[in-house]
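User: Design a sequence. Structure:
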C-alpha cells in the first residue's frame, strides 16, 4: 500500500522514529516537521496510525539506523 510520504506525515514520522532509534510513538505534523501542529496517537485516524506503523516497519525491514558514532 502506498502512503503519502511527505515530510512530517505519519509514514515519514514512522520511518524517522525507527531511523533515529526512537520509541514507537505514533504522531505526525500538520505541515512542516517541528514547526507546525503535532498530532499524536489519540487524535489520529486508523489510516494515519496504519501509515505510521507501515513507515516504522518499512524502516525495520530496511534495517538502516542513524550511526551516531
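Assistant: Done.
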Amino acid at each position: 500500500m502506498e502512503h503519502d510520504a511527505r515530510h512530517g506525515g505519519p509514514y515519514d514520522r514512522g520511518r524517522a522514529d525507527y531511523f533515529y532509534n526512537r520509541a514507537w510513538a505514533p504522531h505526525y505534523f500538520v505541515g512542516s516537521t517541528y514547526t507546525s501542529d503535532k498530532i499524536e496517537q489519540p487524535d489520529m485516524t486508523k489510516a494515519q496510525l496504519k501509515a505510521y506503523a507501515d513507515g516504522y516497519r518499512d524502516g525495520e525491514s530496511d534495517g538502516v539506523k542513524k550511526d551516531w558514532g
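The mean pLDDT is 95. Residues 46-62 form the longest helix (17 residues).
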